[in-house]
Amino acid sequence: DQQVKQNSPSLSVQEGRISILNCDYTNSMFDYFLWYKKYPAEGPTFLISISSIKDKNEDGRFTVFLNKSAKHLSLHIVPSQPGDSAVYFCAAKDSNYQLIWGAGTKLIIKP
Amino acid sequence: NAGVTQTPKFRILKIGQSMTLQCTQDMNHNYMYWYRQDPGMGLKLIYYSVGAGITDKGEVPNGYNVSRSTTEDFPLRLELAAPSQTSVYFCASSYSGHSGNTIYFGEGSWLTVV
After folding, report:
1. Which chain B residues are within 8 Å of A41, Cβ to Cβ?
2. Do B90 and A43 make contact, defined as CB atoms within 8 angstroms?
3. Which residues in chain A show pLDDT less than 70?
């Protein structure tokens, strides 16, 4: 039973365009959400986060939107750059302060 | 600045063999974690530690053991390797457990059990 789902295993986007990565969750008690980025043969690195009391958080080219009623969050990357090609993981923090992870979406930025 | 260092990076084990994945961090973090990532799946927490001398089970602890004798080191022990333990293992650390964005990961250890 996956509590955090990333339904798109991969996404291909033209360089300069917007990349939108989606994440759905089932547990309404999650109160903090994070996006991590992972390059091949490296560990995940933190990208951006959002608290459940907000609906948007922005950091440079990266914006995370949270829709609590739909239990959905998305990561927007504008404009997409070749270095953004990586696997992106969505994670949610539960009441025990553990992170529940999605399966990841592989983003490919085409030149 | 080494951060989180885990060894070995690659290992092939035979069924029934034992091995230890080493993990050390130089950031003086209290919390340390071991995750596994199977193909097409998210990270699953195996064990974690909130400080030296304290360890707790995560979501998938069966077949593993850990110890935390020092703040820096958090080795993961596989006693009787099974094919189901073929996975990529990530060690991680954080100053506290209350904010996910402070988690730092090692580069991963690829383990194959044949």
Report:
1. 107-108
2. yes
3. 1
